[in-house]
Specification:
This protein is α/β, with parallel strands linked by helices. Among the domains are: 114-224, no CATH class; 311-438, no CATH class. The protein contains 17 helices and 21 strands. The strands form 6 sheets. It has a 7-stranded mixed sheet with strand order 7-6-16-17-18-14-20, with helices on both faces. Helix 3 crosses helix 4 (123-148) and helix 7 (179-186) runs antiparallel to helix 8 (190-197). It starts with 10 loop residues before the first strand and ends with a helix.
Protein backbone atom coordinates (compact mmCIF):
# COMPACT_ATOMS: atom_id res chain seq x y z
CA UNK A 1 0.00 0.00 0.00
CA UNK A 2 1.67 3.24 -1.11
CA UNK A 3 2.31 6.05 1.32
CA UNK A 4 1.63 9.61 0.23
CA UNK A 5 3.44 12.54 1.81
CA UNK A 6 4.66 12.42 5.36
CA UNK A 7 1.35 11.36 6.93
CA UNK A 8 1.70 8.66 9.56
CA UNK A 9 -0.36 5.58 8.87
CA UNK A 10 -2.95 4.64 11.45
CA UNK A 11 -6.64 5.41 11.82
CA UNK A 12 -8.50 8.04 9.84
CA UNK A 13 -11.82 9.10 11.33
CA UNK A 14 -14.19 10.79 8.90
CA UNK A 15 -16.42 13.21 10.76
CA UNK A 16 -16.17 14.89 14.15
CA UNK A 17 -19.69 14.16 15.34
CA UNK A 18 -19.91 12.58 18.76
CA UNK A 19 -19.51 9.08 17.31
CA UNK A 20 -16.31 10.00 15.48
CA UNK A 21 -14.98 11.96 18.44
CA UNK A 22 -15.58 9.02 20.77
CA UNK A 23 -13.90 6.60 18.36
CA UNK A 24 -10.92 8.94 18.03
CA UNK A 25 -10.59 9.30 21.80
CA UNK A 26 -10.85 5.54 22.37
CA UNK A 27 -8.29 4.73 19.65
CA UNK A 28 -5.84 7.45 20.69
CA UNK A 29 -6.00 6.22 24.29
CA UNK A 30 -4.67 2.86 23.02
CA UNK A 31 -1.74 4.47 21.23
CA UNK A 32 -3.19 4.35 17.71
CA UNK A 33 -2.17 7.30 15.51
CA UNK A 34 -5.47 9.04 14.69
CA UNK A 35 -6.33 11.76 12.20
CA UNK A 36 -9.85 13.19 12.27
CA UNK A 37 -11.06 14.81 9.06
CA UNK A 38 -14.12 17.07 9.40
CA UNK A 39 -15.77 19.04 6.62
CA UNK A 40 -17.16 21.69 8.98
CA UNK A 41 -15.17 24.29 10.88
CA UNK A 42 -15.92 22.90 14.34
CA UNK A 43 -16.58 19.54 16.02
CA UNK A 44 -19.98 18.25 17.04
CA UNK A 45 -21.85 17.28 13.88
CA UNK A 46 -25.54 17.55 14.75
CA UNK A 47 -24.45 18.79 18.19
CA UNK A 48 -23.93 22.21 16.69
CA UNK A 49 -24.22 25.84 17.70
CA UNK A 50 -25.84 28.65 15.73
CA UNK A 51 -26.13 32.37 16.37
CA UNK A 52 -29.59 33.90 16.44
CA UNK A 53 -30.56 37.35 17.60
CA UNK A 54 -26.93 37.98 18.52
CA UNK A 55 -26.71 34.95 20.87
CA UNK A 56 -25.10 31.51 20.46
CA UNK A 57 -27.32 28.54 21.27
CA UNK A 58 -27.51 24.78 20.86
CA UNK A 59 -29.25 23.85 17.62
CA UNK A 60 -29.09 20.09 18.01
CA UNK A 61 -29.44 17.67 20.93
CA UNK A 62 -30.53 19.36 24.15
CA UNK A 63 -30.50 16.48 26.69
CA UNK A 64 -27.52 14.72 28.30
CA UNK A 65 -28.29 11.18 29.53
CA UNK A 66 -26.48 7.86 30.12
CA UNK A 67 -23.45 9.66 31.51
CA UNK A 68 -21.87 6.28 32.38
CA UNK A 69 -20.90 5.95 28.70
CA UNK A 70 -18.90 9.18 28.89
CA UNK A 71 -17.52 8.39 32.34
CA UNK A 72 -16.12 5.18 30.85
CA UNK A 73 -14.73 6.88 27.76
CA UNK A 74 -12.82 9.40 29.87
CA UNK A 75 -11.70 6.80 32.42
CA UNK A 76 -10.18 4.61 29.71
CA UNK A 77 -8.20 7.60 28.51
CA UNK A 78 -6.86 8.28 32.01
CA UNK A 79 -9.14 11.26 32.66
CA UNK A 80 -12.30 12.21 34.55
CA UNK A 81 -15.44 13.53 32.90
CA UNK A 82 -16.07 15.88 35.82
CA UNK A 83 -12.73 17.58 35.18
CA UNK A 84 -13.87 18.50 31.65
CA UNK A 85 -17.59 19.20 31.99
CA UNK A 86 -19.81 20.61 34.70
CA UNK A 87 -22.99 18.56 34.72
CA UNK A 88 -26.03 19.67 36.72
CA UNK A 89 -28.61 16.97 37.56
CA UNK A 90 -32.19 17.78 36.67
CA UNK A 91 -35.25 16.68 38.64
CA UNK A 92 -38.00 18.23 36.48
CA UNK A 93 -37.58 16.38 33.18
CA UNK A 94 -40.12 18.38 31.21
CA UNK A 95 -43.32 20.40 31.37
CA UNK A 96 -46.13 19.36 29.03
CA UNK A 97 -49.03 21.43 27.79
CA UNK A 98 -52.12 20.58 25.73
CA UNK A 99 -54.49 22.66 23.67
CA UNK A 100 -57.27 21.78 26.12
CA UNK A 101 -55.41 23.82 28.74
CA UNK A 102 -54.07 20.92 30.83
CA UNK A 103 -50.46 20.94 32.07
CA UNK A 104 -48.21 18.29 33.58
CA UNK A 105 -44.64 18.23 34.90
CA UNK A 106 -42.73 14.93 34.82
CA UNK A 107 -40.01 14.37 37.42
CA UNK A 108 -37.08 11.98 37.64
CA UNK A 109 -37.77 11.16 41.30
CA UNK A 110 -40.24 8.22 41.29
CA UNK A 111 -42.29 9.37 44.28
CA UNK A 112 -42.54 12.95 43.07
CA UNK A 113 -43.43 11.75 39.58
CA UNK A 114 -46.12 9.38 40.86
CA UNK A 115 -47.60 12.16 42.99
CA UNK A 116 -47.66 14.44 39.94
CA UNK A 117 -49.42 11.77 37.87
CA UNK A 118 -51.97 11.26 40.65
CA UNK A 119 -52.72 14.98 40.74
CA UNK A 120 -52.93 15.11 36.94
CA UNK A 121 -54.82 11.92 36.09
CA UNK A 122 -55.82 10.22 39.35
CA UNK A 123 -54.35 7.64 41.76
CA UNK A 124 -55.09 4.67 39.48
CA UNK A 125 -52.97 6.21 36.72
CA UNK A 126 -50.21 6.86 39.25
CA UNK A 127 -50.12 3.13 40.03
CA UNK A 128 -50.06 2.36 36.32
CA UNK A 129 -47.24 4.86 35.89
CA UNK A 130 -45.08 3.11 38.49
CA UNK A 131 -45.78 -0.23 36.79
CA UNK A 132 -44.83 1.29 33.42
CA UNK A 133 -41.66 2.75 34.88
CA UNK A 134 -40.67 -0.63 36.32
CA UNK A 135 -41.36 -2.35 33.01
CA UNK A 136 -39.21 0.16 31.13
CA UNK A 137 -36.42 -0.46 33.63
CA UNK A 138 -36.63 -4.23 33.12
CA UNK A 139 -36.55 -3.86 29.32
CA UNK A 140 -33.48 -1.66 29.57
CA UNK A 141 -31.79 -4.03 32.03
CA UNK A 142 -32.35 -6.95 29.67
CA UNK A 143 -30.91 -5.19 26.63
CA UNK A 144 -28.18 -2.95 28.02
CA UNK A 145 -25.33 -5.45 28.06
CA UNK A 146 -26.16 -7.82 25.18
CA UNK A 147 -27.47 -5.16 22.79
CA UNK A 148 -26.68 -1.55 23.68
CA UNK A 149 -23.11 -2.09 24.90
CA UNK A 150 -22.14 -4.85 22.46
CA UNK A 151 -21.55 -5.26 18.76
CA UNK A 152 -24.72 -5.54 16.68
CA UNK A 153 -26.30 -8.97 17.13
CA UNK A 154 -28.78 -10.83 14.99
CA UNK A 155 -31.79 -12.31 16.73
CA UNK A 156 -30.04 -15.63 17.47
CA UNK A 157 -26.98 -13.80 18.82
CA UNK A 158 -29.22 -11.76 21.10
CA UNK A 159 -30.91 -14.88 22.47
CA UNK A 160 -27.50 -16.44 23.07
CA UNK A 161 -26.18 -13.33 24.80
CA UNK A 162 -29.24 -12.93 27.02
CA UNK A 163 -29.16 -16.63 27.86
CA UNK A 164 -31.81 -19.32 27.81
CA UNK A 165 -32.51 -18.79 31.50
CA UNK A 166 -33.65 -15.22 30.74
CA UNK A 167 -35.79 -15.82 27.67
CA UNK A 168 -38.80 -14.63 29.67
CA UNK A 169 -37.11 -11.27 30.20
CA UNK A 170 -36.28 -11.07 26.50
CA UNK A 171 -39.91 -11.86 25.61
CA UNK A 172 -41.01 -9.03 27.94
CA UNK A 173 -39.27 -6.52 25.66
CA UNK A 174 -42.29 -7.11 23.35
CA UNK A 175 -40.71 -6.41 19.95
CA UNK A 176 -43.83 -7.69 18.14
CA UNK A 177 -46.15 -5.11 19.72
CA UNK A 178 -46.10 -1.45 18.74
CA UNK A 179 -45.24 1.13 21.32
CA UNK A 180 -48.67 2.74 20.90
CA UNK A 181 -50.46 -0.54 21.66
CA UNK A 182 -48.28 -1.18 24.70
CA UNK A 183 -49.02 2.31 26.01
CA UNK A 184 -52.74 1.84 25.40
CA UNK A 185 -52.53 -1.19 27.68
CA UNK A 186 -50.46 0.74 30.23
CA UNK A 187 -52.49 3.96 30.60
CA UNK A 188 -56.13 4.96 30.34
CA UNK A 189 -55.39 8.69 30.09
CA UNK A 190 -54.77 9.57 26.42
CA UNK A 191 -52.46 12.41 27.42
CA UNK A 192 -50.08 10.06 29.19
CA UNK A 193 -50.12 7.78 26.15
CA UNK A 194 -49.20 10.80 24.03
CA UNK A 195 -46.48 11.93 26.42
CA UNK A 196 -44.70 8.58 26.58
CA UNK A 197 -45.41 7.78 22.93
CA UNK A 198 -43.31 10.79 22.03
CA UNK A 199 -40.26 8.89 23.32
CA UNK A 200 -40.28 6.97 20.01
CA UNK A 201 -39.36 10.23 18.29
CA UNK A 202 -36.11 10.23 20.28
CA UNK A 203 -35.13 7.55 17.75
CA UNK A 204 -36.79 9.39 14.88
CA UNK A 205 -39.67 6.92 14.76
CA UNK A 206 -43.45 6.72 15.02
CA UNK A 207 -44.93 5.18 18.19
CA UNK A 208 -47.53 3.58 15.90
CA UNK A 209 -44.83 1.62 14.03
CA UNK A 210 -41.94 1.39 16.51
CA UNK A 211 -41.72 -1.71 18.71
CA UNK A 212 -42.74 -1.48 22.36
CA UNK A 213 -39.10 -2.25 23.13
CA UNK A 214 -38.45 1.48 22.75
CA UNK A 215 -40.16 2.02 26.08
CA UNK A 216 -36.60 1.57 27.40
CA UNK A 217 -36.04 5.20 26.31
CA UNK A 218 -38.33 6.21 29.17
CA UNK A 219 -36.01 4.47 31.62
CA UNK A 220 -32.95 6.16 30.14
CA UNK A 221 -34.44 9.59 30.77
CA UNK A 222 -35.95 8.72 34.12
CA UNK A 223 -32.62 7.27 35.27
CA UNK A 224 -30.95 10.65 34.97
CA UNK A 225 -30.83 13.85 32.93
CA UNK A 226 -28.16 16.53 33.26
CA UNK A 227 -27.72 20.07 32.03
CA UNK A 228 -24.31 20.81 30.57
CA UNK A 229 -22.95 24.14 31.74
CA UNK A 230 -22.16 26.16 28.64
CA UNK A 231 -24.40 24.08 26.38
CA UNK A 232 -24.32 20.68 24.72
CA UNK A 233 -21.65 21.78 22.25
CA UNK A 234 -19.25 21.66 25.22
CA UNK A 235 -19.59 17.87 25.19
CA UNK A 236 -18.10 17.74 21.71
CA UNK A 237 -15.29 20.10 22.71
CA UNK A 238 -14.52 18.00 25.80
CA UNK A 239 -14.24 14.73 23.83
CA UNK A 240 -12.16 16.50 21.18
CA UNK A 241 -9.78 17.70 23.93
CA UNK A 242 -9.62 14.16 25.33
CA UNK A 243 -8.61 12.75 21.96
CA UNK A 244 -6.06 15.52 21.39
CA UNK A 245 -4.51 14.92 24.82
CA UNK A 246 -3.69 11.39 23.67
CA UNK A 247 -2.22 12.50 20.35
CA UNK A 248 -5.14 12.61 17.91
CA UNK A 249 -4.83 15.20 15.15
CA UNK A 250 -7.80 17.17 13.85
CA UNK A 251 -8.21 18.79 10.45
CA UNK A 252 -11.26 20.99 9.92
CA UNK A 253 -12.47 22.17 6.54
CA UNK A 254 -11.31 18.78 5.20
CA UNK A 255 -13.90 17.43 2.77
CA UNK A 256 -13.49 13.68 2.17
CA UNK A 257 -14.33 12.81 -1.41
CA UNK A 258 -13.69 9.05 -1.43
CA UNK A 259 -12.47 6.08 0.56
CA UNK A 260 -9.82 4.26 -1.46
CA UNK A 261 -8.86 0.61 -1.42
CA UNK A 262 -5.94 -1.56 -2.42
CA UNK A 263 -5.81 -5.33 -2.35
CA UNK A 264 -9.43 -5.56 -1.26
CA UNK A 265 -9.14 -3.40 1.85
CA UNK A 266 -9.06 0.26 2.84
CA UNK A 267 -5.80 2.02 2.06
CA UNK A 268 -6.49 5.77 2.16
CA UNK A 269 -9.06 8.54 1.93
CA UNK A 270 -8.99 11.15 -0.80
CA UNK A 271 -9.88 14.76 -0.08
CA UNK A 272 -11.49 17.24 -2.42
CA UNK A 273 -8.56 18.67 -4.35
CA UNK A 274 -6.84 15.29 -4.65
CA UNK A 275 -4.81 14.96 -1.43
CA UNK A 276 -4.60 11.35 -0.19
CA UNK A 277 -4.37 10.50 3.51
CA UNK A 278 -3.06 6.91 4.00
CA UNK A 279 -4.84 4.75 6.56
CA UNK A 280 -4.56 1.31 8.09
CA UNK A 281 -8.28 1.59 8.69
CA UNK A 282 -11.07 4.17 8.52
CA UNK A 283 -13.90 4.91 10.93
CA UNK A 284 -16.68 6.67 9.03
CA UNK A 285 -18.77 8.89 11.30
CA UNK A 286 -21.06 9.77 8.40
CA UNK A 287 -24.64 8.69 7.98
CA UNK A 288 -24.65 5.14 6.63
CA UNK A 289 -27.13 6.31 4.03
CA UNK A 290 -24.52 8.68 2.62
CA UNK A 291 -22.03 5.85 2.20
CA UNK A 292 -24.66 3.60 0.64
CA UNK A 293 -25.60 6.39 -1.78
CA UNK A 294 -22.03 6.45 -3.11
CA UNK A 295 -20.94 9.81 -1.65
CA UNK A 296 -17.66 8.26 -0.50
CA UNK A 297 -16.97 6.23 -3.62
CA UNK A 298 -18.12 2.90 -5.07
CA UNK A 299 -16.07 0.66 -2.76
CA UNK A 300 -17.63 2.19 0.35
CA UNK A 301 -21.09 2.13 -1.25
CA UNK A 302 -20.84 -1.62 -1.76
CA UNK A 303 -19.82 -2.14 1.87
CA UNK A 304 -23.05 -0.93 3.53
CA UNK A 305 -26.76 -1.38 2.86
CA UNK A 306 -28.64 1.41 1.13
CA UNK A 307 -31.34 3.27 3.05
CA UNK A 308 -34.60 3.72 1.12
CA UNK A 309 -36.38 7.04 1.39
CA UNK A 310 -39.38 5.36 3.03
CA UNK A 311 -37.10 3.93 5.75
CA UNK A 312 -35.60 7.25 6.84
CA UNK A 313 -36.24 8.59 10.31
CA UNK A 314 -37.86 11.91 11.08
CA UNK A 315 -36.37 15.24 10.07
CA UNK A 316 -37.43 18.57 11.53
CA UNK A 317 -38.17 22.24 11.14
CA UNK A 318 -35.95 23.86 13.79
CA UNK A 319 -36.10 27.53 14.72
CA UNK A 320 -33.11 28.74 16.74
CA UNK A 321 -34.30 32.01 18.23
CA UNK A 322 -33.73 34.72 20.80
CA UNK A 323 -37.25 35.88 21.41
CA UNK A 324 -39.66 37.08 24.06
CA UNK A 325 -42.35 34.72 25.35
CA UNK A 326 -45.63 35.47 27.12
CA UNK A 327 -48.28 33.41 28.82
CA UNK A 328 -47.37 29.78 29.36
CA UNK A 329 -44.52 29.43 31.93
CA UNK A 330 -41.76 27.57 30.12
CA UNK A 331 -39.31 25.25 31.84
CA UNK A 332 -35.97 24.19 30.39
CA UNK A 333 -37.79 21.49 28.40
CA UNK A 334 -41.43 21.99 27.41
CA UNK A 335 -43.57 19.94 25.02
CA UNK A 336 -46.84 21.16 23.52
CA UNK A 337 -49.46 18.71 22.23
CA UNK A 338 -52.71 18.98 20.32
CA UNK A 339 -55.44 17.11 22.21
CA UNK A 340 -56.71 15.53 19.00
CA UNK A 341 -55.72 12.31 17.23
CA UNK A 342 -51.98 11.92 17.85
CA UNK A 343 -51.67 9.30 15.09
CA UNK A 344 -52.42 11.98 12.46
CA UNK A 345 -49.03 13.58 13.06
CA UNK A 346 -47.13 10.43 12.15
CA UNK A 347 -49.45 9.52 9.31
CA UNK A 348 -48.66 12.92 7.79
CA UNK A 349 -44.89 12.50 8.21
CA UNK A 350 -44.43 8.87 7.16
CA UNK A 351 -47.34 8.23 4.77
CA UNK A 352 -48.35 11.59 3.28
CA UNK A 353 -44.78 12.98 3.50
CA UNK A 354 -45.83 16.44 4.72
CA UNK A 355 -45.54 18.52 7.87
CA UNK A 356 -48.43 17.88 10.29
CA UNK A 357 -51.45 20.19 10.50
CA UNK A 358 -51.31 20.17 14.32
CA UNK A 359 -47.68 19.42 15.13
CA UNK A 360 -46.21 18.51 18.48
CA UNK A 361 -43.84 21.36 19.38
CA UNK A 362 -40.80 20.94 21.61
CA UNK A 363 -39.09 24.02 23.05
CA UNK A 364 -35.78 24.06 24.89
CA UNK A 365 -35.56 27.36 26.78
CA UNK A 366 -31.80 27.45 27.20
CA UNK A 367 -31.63 30.33 29.67
CA UNK A 368 -33.86 28.51 32.17
CA UNK A 369 -32.49 26.16 34.78
CA UNK A 370 -34.28 23.90 37.21
CA UNK A 371 -36.74 26.61 38.22
CA UNK A 372 -39.12 28.15 35.71
CA UNK A 373 -40.27 31.62 36.76
CA UNK A 374 -43.74 32.62 35.73
CA UNK A 375 -42.50 36.08 34.83
CA UNK A 376 -41.11 36.66 31.34
CA UNK A 377 -37.32 36.77 31.09
CA UNK A 378 -37.19 39.21 28.20
CA UNK A 379 -35.59 37.88 25.02
CA UNK A 380 -34.40 34.33 25.72
CA UNK A 381 -32.65 31.60 23.75
CA UNK A 382 -35.12 29.08 22.34
CA UNK A 383 -34.72 25.87 20.37
CA UNK A 384 -38.10 25.20 18.71
CA UNK A 385 -38.47 21.76 17.11
CA UNK A 386 -41.29 20.48 14.88
CA UNK A 387 -41.15 17.01 13.30
CA UNK A 388 -41.12 16.79 9.50
CA UNK A 389 -40.50 14.17 6.79
CA UNK A 390 -36.92 13.54 5.68
CA UNK A 391 -37.42 14.61 2.06
CA UNK A 392 -34.93 17.45 1.93
CA UNK A 393 -33.37 15.99 -1.22
CA UNK A 394 -36.42 14.65 -3.05
CA UNK A 395 -38.91 17.41 -2.17
CA UNK A 396 -37.10 20.54 -1.00
CA UNK A 397 -39.01 22.80 1.40
CA UNK A 398 -40.53 25.85 -0.31
CA UNK A 399 -41.16 29.31 1.12
CA UNK A 400 -44.87 28.47 1.09
CA UNK A 401 -44.20 25.28 3.11
CA UNK A 402 -42.17 27.28 5.63
CA UNK A 403 -44.86 29.94 6.05
CA UNK A 404 -47.56 27.30 6.56
CA UNK A 405 -45.51 25.35 9.11
CA UNK A 406 -44.65 28.54 11.01
CA UNK A 407 -48.32 29.55 11.17
CA UNK A 408 -49.39 26.10 12.36
CA UNK A 409 -46.64 26.04 14.98
CA UNK A 410 -47.45 29.45 16.43
CA UNK A 411 -51.17 28.69 16.34
CA UNK A 412 -50.73 25.50 18.34
CA UNK A 413 -48.55 27.29 20.89
CA UNK A 414 -51.14 30.04 21.26
CA UNK A 415 -53.87 27.44 21.81
CA UNK A 416 -51.70 26.04 24.61
CA UNK A 417 -51.32 29.51 26.12
CA UNK A 418 -47.88 30.52 24.82
CA UNK A 419 -47.23 33.55 22.65
CA UNK A 420 -43.78 34.20 21.25
CA UNK A 421 -42.33 36.68 18.81
CA UNK A 422 -40.65 34.74 16.01
CA UNK A 423 -39.24 36.88 13.21
CA UNK A 424 -36.50 36.55 10.58
CA UNK A 425 -34.46 39.06 12.58
CA UNK A 426 -34.41 37.07 15.83
CA UNK A 427 -34.34 33.49 14.51
CA UNK A 428 -32.57 31.07 12.20
CA UNK A 429 -34.57 28.26 10.59
CA UNK A 430 -33.11 24.89 9.59
CA UNK A 431 -35.42 22.81 7.39
CA UNK A 432 -35.06 19.22 6.10
CA UNK A 433 -33.45 20.79 3.02
CA UNK A 434 -30.97 22.56 5.29
CA UNK A 435 -30.21 19.37 7.19
CA UNK A 436 -29.65 17.58 3.87
CA UNK A 437 -27.11 20.28 2.97
CA UNK A 438 -25.38 19.85 6.32
CA UNK A 439 -25.52 16.04 6.20
CA UNK A 440 -25.71 14.98 2.53
CA UNK A 441 -27.31 11.71 1.52
CA UNK A 442 -29.84 11.73 4.36
CA UNK A 443 -32.71 13.82 3.05
CA UNK A 444 -32.40 15.59 6.38
CA UNK A 445 -33.08 12.47 8.47
CA UNK A 446 -31.72 13.20 11.94
CA UNK A 447 -31.61 9.65 13.32
CA UNK A 448 -30.52 7.41 10.45
CA UNK A 449 -33.17 4.82 9.58
CA UNK A 450 -36.43 4.74 11.54
CA UNK A 451 -36.78 1.96 14.10
CA UNK A 452 -40.01 0.47 12.81
CA UNK A 453 -41.22 -3.11 13.07
CA UNK A 454 -40.08 -5.97 15.28
CA UNK A 455 -36.69 -6.16 13.62
CA UNK A 456 -36.11 -2.45 13.02
CA UNK A 457 -33.37 -2.28 15.64
CA UNK A 458 -31.48 -5.01 13.78
CA UNK A 459 -31.65 -3.14 10.45
CA UNK A 460 -28.95 -0.67 11.42
CA UNK A 461 -25.49 -1.72 10.26
CA UNK A 462 -22.94 -2.61 12.89
CA UNK A 463 -19.43 -1.28 13.32
CA UNK A 464 -17.93 -3.76 10.87
CA UNK A 465 -18.68 -3.52 7.16
CA UNK A 466 -18.18 -5.76 4.14
CA UNK A 467 -15.05 -3.78 3.28
CA UNK A 468 -12.06 -4.81 5.42
CA UNK A 469 -10.66 -1.81 7.23
CA UNK A 470 -13.88 0.24 7.09
CA UNK A 471 -15.81 0.71 10.32
CA UNK A 472 -18.94 2.74 11.05
CA UNK A 473 -19.85 4.99 13.97
CA UNK A 474 -22.61 7.46 14.76
CA UNK A 475 -26.35 7.68 15.17
CA UNK A 476 -27.25 5.87 11.93
CA UNK A 477 -25.55 2.64 13.03
CA UNK A 478 -25.87 0.27 15.98
CA UNK A 479 -26.76 0.81 18.81
CA UNK A 480 -28.76 3.83 17.62
CA UNK A 481 -29.35 7.56 17.60
CA UNK A 482 -28.93 10.13 20.35
CA UNK A 483 -25.81 11.54 21.96
CA UNK A 484 -24.98 8.63 24.31
CA UNK A 485 -25.86 5.91 21.80
CA UNK A 486 -23.79 7.55 19.07
CA UNK A 487 -20.90 7.82 21.54
CA UNK A 488 -21.29 4.14 22.36
CA UNK A 489 -21.26 3.44 18.63
CA UNK A 490 -17.93 5.23 18.38
CA UNK A 491 -16.51 3.14 21.20
CA UNK A 492 -17.80 -0.04 19.56
CA UNK A 493 -16.20 0.94 16.24
CA UNK A 494 -12.87 1.52 18.00
CA UNK A 495 -13.20 -1.79 19.85
CA UNK A 496 -13.94 -3.69 16.63
CA UNK A 497 -10.97 -2.14 14.85
CA UNK A 498 -8.64 -2.86 17.76
CA UNK A 499 -9.86 -6.43 18.02
CA UNK A 500 -9.41 -6.98 14.29
CA UNK A 501 -5.90 -5.56 14.51
CA UNK A 502 -5.12 -7.90 17.37
CA UNK A 503 -4.15 -5.00 19.64
CA UNK A 504 -6.31 -6.15 22.51
CA UNK A 505 -8.01 -9.36 23.64
CA UNK A 506 -10.03 -8.03 26.55
CA UNK A 507 -13.73 -8.59 25.84
CA UNK A 508 -15.61 -6.13 27.98
CA UNK A 509 -17.01 -2.70 27.29
CA UNK A 510 -18.33 -2.27 30.81
CA UNK A 511 -18.48 -4.16 34.06
CA UNK A 512 -22.22 -4.29 33.66
CA UNK A 513 -21.93 -5.80 30.16
CA UNK A 514 -19.42 -8.67 30.39
CA UNK A 515 -20.35 -10.01 26.95
CA UNK A 516 -19.43 -6.80 25.15
CA UNK A 517 -16.35 -6.81 22.97
CA UNK A 518 -13.08 -5.14 23.83
CA UNK A 519 -12.57 -1.43 24.14
CA UNK A 520 -14.87 -0.57 26.98
CA UNK A 521 -15.08 0.87 30.40
CA UNK A 522 -14.88 -0.16 33.99
CA UNK A 523 -17.60 2.31 34.95
CA UNK A 524 -20.89 0.75 36.10
CA UNK A 525 -24.04 1.70 34.24
CA UNK A 526 -27.22 3.06 35.79
CA UNK A 527 -28.72 -0.44 35.86
CA UNK A 528 -25.77 -1.68 37.88
CA UNK A 529 -25.43 1.36 40.08
CA UNK A 530 -29.09 2.07 40.67
CA UNK A 531 -32.27 0.56 39.37
CA UNK A 532 -33.87 3.99 39.68
Amino acid sequence: MPRDGAAERGAVVIGAGIGGLSAAAALAAQGVPVTVLERAATPGGKMREVTAGGAALDAGPTVFTMRWIFDGLFEEAGARLDDHLRLLPVDRLARHGWTDGSRFDLYADPDRAAAAVADFAGPAEARRYLAFRDRARRIYSTLEGPFIADQRPNTLDLIRRVGLSRLGALFETTPFQTMAKALAASFEDRRLRQLFGRYATYCGSSPYAAPATLMLVAHVELAGVWLVEGGMHRVARAVEALAKANGAAFRYGAHVEAIETEGGRVSAVRLAGGERVPADFVVANADAGALGAGLFGPEAAAAVPKVARRDRSISAMVWSARAETRGFPLTRHTVFFDEGDYAREFDAIFRSRRTPEAPTVYICAQDRGEDAPDAALGPERLHIHVNAPADGDAAPITDEDIALCRTRTLTLLERCGLTLDLTPDNSVLTTPTGFEALFPGTGGALFGPATHGAFGAFARPGARTRLPGLYLAGGSVHPGAGVPMAAMGGRLAAAAALQDLGRRDRASISRSAPRAISGGTSTPSPTTASAG
